[in-house]
Amino acid sequence: MAPVEHTGTSTALLTDHYELTMLGSALADGTADRDCVFEVFARRLPSGRRYGVVGGIARVLDAIMDFRFTDADLAQLHATAVVDDGTLNWLSGYRFSGDIDGYVEGELYFPGSPILTVRGTFAEAVVLETVVLSILNHDSAIASAAARMSSAAHGRPIIEMGSRRTHEQAAVAAARAAYLAGFATTSNLEAGRRYGIPTRGTAAHSFMLLHDTEEAAFRAQIDKVGADTTLLVDTYDITDGIETAVRVAGPELGAIRIDSGDVGVLARKAREQLDSLGAKDTRIVVSGDLDEHAIAALRAEPVDAYGVGTSVVTGSGAPTAGMVYKLVEVEGRPVAKRSEHKASRGGRKSALRRHKPTGTALEEVVYASAAPPALGDDDRELHIPMVRDGDQVGGLPTLDDARQRLRRGLVSLPWEGLKLSGGDPAIPTTFT
Amino acid sequence: MAPVEHTGTSTALLTDHYELTMLGSALADGTADRDCVFEVFARRLPSGRRYGVVGGIARVLDAIMDFRFTDADLAQLHATAVVDDGTLNWLSGYRFSGDIDGYVEGELYFPGSPILTVRGTFAEAVVLETVVLSILNHDSAIASAAARMSSAAHGRPIIEMGSRRTHEQAAVAAARAAYLAGFATTSNLEAGRRYGIPTRGTAAHSFMLLHDTEEAAFRAQIDKVGADTTLLVDTYDITDGIETAVRVAGPELGAIRIDSGDVGVLARKAREQLDSLGAKDTRIVVSGDLDEHAIAALRAEPVDAYGVGTSVVTGSGAPTAGMVYKLVEVEGRPVAKRSEHKASRGGRKSALRRHKPTGTALEEVVYASAAPPALGDDDRELHIPMVRDGDQVGGLPTLDDARQRLRRGLVSLPWEGLKLSGGDPAIPTTFT
């Protein structure tokens, strides 16, 4: 093992065992250096979904840059005999030196969209499969669900508060994906640090129960953070809670939160009560098992903001995006699995999206990269260069760019494409 | 900010913003020091499930030990004005100094089971809510799904291979939870390092496509790792693939893997073909979108092992366990939310499980800790001490202990409790 020193967090063992077994065999028989193209795509969208949202690209690129085998990693692989010394030696010098092109974060995708194309030797590209898919499948699942919620909320802000319902690190990535998809803020402090996402939060029921009375709890909160805060009014009786809240905070009270019950009915009653108490500018925040359908159903109610937890961090019924990482080209020759199930299309591909002159999307065109079709005035190429010779290309989109991209993308969909009910993909994918 | 130096990975920002807002208010009004008991429980099991499996306890205890605010954490909270300087100063010295009791990993749980009881001041206990729930909700969801699969597999080994379908760090925890629940091995190399779980893996379709012929791919693999390996035979034509596999490896071939199609029918045909080729000891591994129902349906087929991915890492339809962390006691006085929805039971609680003399479980008895019922010969107390004055109690169960615990727990269930179809919890929960 070469004594290469790596610092920082390595992503190299976030990898399936078989990637290294394949690597060992390919190094031994001389095929490891063959020039290969792997493609990430989804065979289909989750049942009934009309579009997917690409999330996690920036995290993927970072993970590839951090994909180095530390001495500790190599010692582990040696001790457990995962690979032999020759393969360990090769891994000790690992650095991805190939090219990556793909869809930017916030871009819509459809069945067969070539979301990411990784070109390199078999050896250097195959070992990235697991971590690339882990990130894209998770983050895209969350972004896709969150986009439906943002769309259903029609401009009302959504607070992401699902950290407690998912793995502690997945929670940070989920907060990022939800923000990408239009959520306004998150409860997750680490997401605030890591990605600069605005964090928010005021109080839970435990804070009310800690105090001898609801009034004492409200007073403690107001004394500390001022009247422009959100008071949680449903610990005991909501009507009493609202009356106490306005008495303690005055009509300058920022907001109340209702976290249980039939929140639509309760919001209407609360609005009337707040108005009658002179708290006409006090906002109403609702939370508690909301998903995109519940949000849509509340459209006509006097709700000012939504808090969403479980449904967004679990992808609202589709917790993984089902993307795969398939070898499509070897030494310039298209390859594809040919058995009757799970067949795939060989060859390196790119994509463009055709639109009407009005801007409405018409179709996703997936084509052989070597034979691009003519680009019409209303067409948009979807692949951008992301990595060249192992280095990240400069000027890749930021998280805020991704938010903008998605907003424009949703506006471009045919109107049926934004329906929450189950249906076909919003636009067809054409392979040329 | 006190210049406390912390090393290692801090879990302190894996926390919802509101925990710190509440902390700030409670420090200001003097309630922060009140002696509190928080309880983790699930109001219900996921729809139709008959039992849950506790997973993640060891990870929770480690996360609590690592819950220290580093200078970088404090600088972030200062820069984003999450809390004021007084609160920051308090956080800089944070160390949990209370007591924790609970269910061991691998223990079954039911609606209302007091899975974890955290006792400390409000301040020190409230801030742990998010990370405790993240870990328990994730790991218990995976362990609960995996236990159904292990039970359906009736002793045949299951390989966990779902890393690519979930967040890259959730994948490591999922591999651990699946192993806890009886899976034999995992594909995830980091789970091998972190938890000592045996890892396995041989080859993907890309390895077949990399080579000019299937025969060349098989030969490369056999030459490298010997005939006692698993050859993936469904890249082109399965019958041809099996014929080639046995020709290349000889009848000593360890196993074949079939990853697509109607795996039951294909396994039967493959068994006949292998036998006719003299490869009577060559095992058959099947994979590809298997869940507990598919595993059960394959019981009569000549399958030797299962590879399970998506369904186990996503909790097979229930990706989160829905556990909550509720304040149940303040200064020795029971407290509970009293509004009409999401009501909860106040007071510090413990639990025991009653059994018939034959060992079959009868009921989960949840009782006030201060008033334990008489313990019969066939009853078992479910709470064990885990943390005292902030230090982990010695001799807590290992991951292998948890596997044994779960195995015994499943045997103790009434027979309907192991049915995969939807139904009520296997035993009732009685509150005394």
TrEMBL record, chains A, B:
Any one Gene Ontology cellular component term annotated for this protein: cytosol
Pathways per UniProt: Cofactor biosynthesis; NAD(+) biosynthesis; nicotinate D-ribonucleotide from nicotinate: step 1/1
UniProt KW keywords: Glycosyltransferase, Ligase, Phosphoprotein, Pyridine nucleotide biosynthesis, Transferase
Nucleotide-binding found in the keyword field: no
Top-rank taxon, per record: Bacteria
Modifications after synthesis and translation: Transiently phosphorylated on a His residue during the reaction cycle. Phosphorylation strongly increases the affinity for substrates and increases the rate of nicotinate D-ribonucleotide production. Dephosphorylation regenerates the low-affinity form of the enzyme, leading to product release.
Catalytic function, reaction form: 5-phospho-alpha-D-ribose 1-diphosphate + nicotinate + ATP + H2O = nicotinate beta-D-ribonucleotide + ADP + phosphate + diphosphate
Keyword Hydrolase found: no
Known function: Catalyzes the first step in the biosynthesis of NAD from nicotinic acid, the ATP-dependent synthesis of beta-nicotinate D-ribonucleotide from nicotinate and 5-phospho-D-ribose 1-phosphate.
PANTHER family: NICOTINATE PHOSPHORIBOSYLTRANSFERASE, NICOTINATE PHOSPHORIBOSYLTRANSFERASE PNCB1
Protein name as it appears in the record: Nicotinate phosphoribosyltransferase
